[in-house]
Amino acid sequence: MADTSELIEFRRAFVWLLCGMLLPSVALVAFGVVAVANERAAVERRLTEEYSSRLQSLQRELMARLDRAVDAAVRREPDPLVASVAPLSRPPPGLEDAVRRVAAMPPAAHVFASTEAQGDRQAWALARTPEKMLAIQFDLPAVVAMIPALGQQRFPRERADFRLVPPREGGLAAQVKRIVAEAGSTTAVARIALGAPLDGFALAAELPGDDPAAALAFRNRSLYILLLVLLYVGIGVGFGLTIREMRRAYKLSRLKTDFVANISHELRTPLTSVRLFAETLREGRAESPEEVRECVELLSSESERLSNLVEKLLSWSRLESGRQMLQQEKTEVPALLEEIGEAYKAQQLPATYQTELEKDLPPVNVDRDAMAQVVLNLLHNAVKYTGDEKRIRLRARRAGRSVAIEVEDNGPGVRQQDRKRIFERFYRADDLLSRKTEGTGLGLAISKKIVEAHGGRIEVDSRLGVGSTFRIVLPAA
Questions:
Q1: C-alpha torsion sign, points 222, 223, 228, 231
Q2: How far is residue 89's CA from residue 82's CA, in Å, rounded to a whole number?
Q3: Is the pLDDT confidence value at 165 over 60?
Q4: For residue 459, what are the CA distances in angstroms to 270, 279, 334, 453?
Q5: How far apart are the first and last CA of the chain?
Q6: Under a CB-based contact definition with an 8 Å cutoff, are residues 49 and 104 in contact?
Q7: CA distance readout (Å), 364 to 257, 325, 335, 342, 454
Q8: Within a 10 A sphere around the Cβ of 203, how many other Cβ atoms?
Q9: Cis omega before residue 197 (within 30°)?
Q10: Backbone angle region of 223, left / alpha / beta, with phi > 0 → left and psi within -120 to 50 → alpha
Q11: What's the maximum distance between 2 C-alpha atoms anywhere in the chain?
């Protein structure tokens, strides 16, 4: 029931995590789609605003240049923008209003005007001098050809081209269009309409390429997509790490639950025996001295079992909190194995082992008591997990620049999927033998902690049905 509730809590946390990550990301993607859709319009608007101000400045430059051309024509000086200069005896059709306006002006004044004859647009300036009025016609192709140079002079570092765009095809407008087309493949990003004498014409700013707005929009979209990909990679990594931590927490919770169940069973068995033998002695059921002695020995054995169990829990607590201090000293391996043998004999376990010792082993820096605890724990496991015909060996040999202490048994072996996990705290292999054998799942975890604190490692080689070899590798002193 507890496992089911923990699994439900894990799934619920997973769903909340998924919603908490997906909903903001979906909103972000929707925002990005809208932003990308409006990106081109935003880029075009920005380019138009930027180049419209430059076109207005260029327009003022153009009108000032036309004024200078009129002044040169009045002084009878040549100017490349002037096509002809003639006294205004009879105004051309379409210039009547301009003639009336210039007649009302003081000498040296002029007005601009434009006419259209046979599909051709003509640009004029009517200038008044003290003696007469002059009709000055501008050379429109020359004016059109002058605009790029005027723009380059006004904006020397500008990559855009400035053009004079004719009103429509046909006649002189077709000639002007051909001059404009010599620039190659360009795209107009801004334009402003002009007044007299260039009515119908427009100043345009053109950027090279088929569609500069699309290029800028593509760059911004690519940057957005790249950032979005990086964001999702970060979200994915964080999601994966979070799921992994949640799974680890869930597994640890299950291990703790199993540990509580195991430790409760381990405590209940000796406590029941102690209570049973104590009641036997109290009620006087043990009549002979042999029965009393047997009850006392069993009480002592169960008490020692309880003491060992509590000591194992305390050892793990000290290792986890870092309170256990190791007193390392240079120790000869034969002396260490002899001390382990004496401790093993004192515990009166129902099995013996053979010792194989390689000659001339280098000493090791170890805490003798802690390392003896590790080896004894491996020997205890070998005794517990082997059958009736126990063959246990304790071996010490060289392993490169290190010393290897091995405990070999002829037990059932360790499955491949359990070989790494058996060193985790509270973990016990899920098989019939493990369920029938007493244990807390802390012995190998404590051993691994102690060995790693000495700068060594502990590993296992095993073959199912043949046996296992647990190896402690310690650096030589």
A1: positive
A2: 19
A3: yes
A4: 32, 46, 22, 15
A5: 52
A6: no
A7: 39, 18, 11, 20, 10
A8: 24
A9: yes
A10: alpha
A11: 160
Q: How confident is the model at residue 171 (pLDDT cuts 50, 70, 90)?
A: very low
Question: What is the β-pairing status of strands 82-87 and 133-138?
Answer: antiparallel
Nearest to 348 by CA among 410, 301, 295, 389: 301
- Does residue 473 have a pLDDT over 90? yes
User: What's the pTM value of the predicted model, to 2 decimals?
Assistant: 0.45
Q: Is the pLDDT of residue 236 over 60?
A: yes
CA neighbor of 261 nearest in space, from 10, 441, 5: 441
289-293, 308-312, 469-473 — which is least confidently predicted?
Answer: 308-312
How far are the Cα atoms of 239, 390, 391, 471 from residue 374, in angstroms, in the given order? 39, 20, 19, 11
Which of 154-168, 182-196, 375-389, 399-413 has the least mean pLDDT? 182-196
| pLDDT range class, residue 40, cuts 50, 70, 90 | low
CA distances from 128 to 131, 278, 438 (A): 8, 138, 122
Tokens of 137: 């016609």
Give the residue from 242, 237, 254 showing the smallest Cα distance to 421. 254
161-171 average pLDDT score: 71
Using H for helix, E for strand and C for coil, what is the string for the chain? CHHHHHHHHHHHHHHHHHHHHHHHHHHHHHHHHHHHHHHHHHHHHHHHHHHHHHHHHHHHHHHHHHHHHHHHHHCCCCCCCEEEEEECCCCCCCCHHHHHHHHCCCCCCEEEEEEEECCEEEEEEEEECCCCEEEEEECHHHHHHHHHHHHHHHCCCCCCEEEEECCCCCCHHHHHHHHHHCCCCEEEEEEEECCCCCCCCEEEEEEECCCHHHHHHHHHHHHHHHHHHHHHHHHHHHHHHHHHHHHHHHHHHHHHHHHHHHHHHHHHHHHHHHHHHHHHHHHCCCCCHHHHHHHHHHHHHHHHHHHHHHHHHHHHHHHHHCCCCCCCEEECHHHHHHHHHHHHHHCCCCCCCEEEECCCCCCEEECHHHHHHHHHHHHHHHHHHCCCCCCCEEEEEEECCEEEEEEECCCCCCCHHHCCHHHCCCCCCCCHHHHHCCCCCCHHHHHHHHHHHCCCEEEEEEECCCEEEEEEEEEEC
Residue 280 CA from chain centroid, whole number: 69
Residues 311 and 306: their CA atoms lie apart, in Å, by: 9
Domains and their CATH numbers in the chain? 2-210 (no CATH), 326-475 (3.30.565.10)
**Looking at this protein, which amino acid is placed at residue 375?**
V
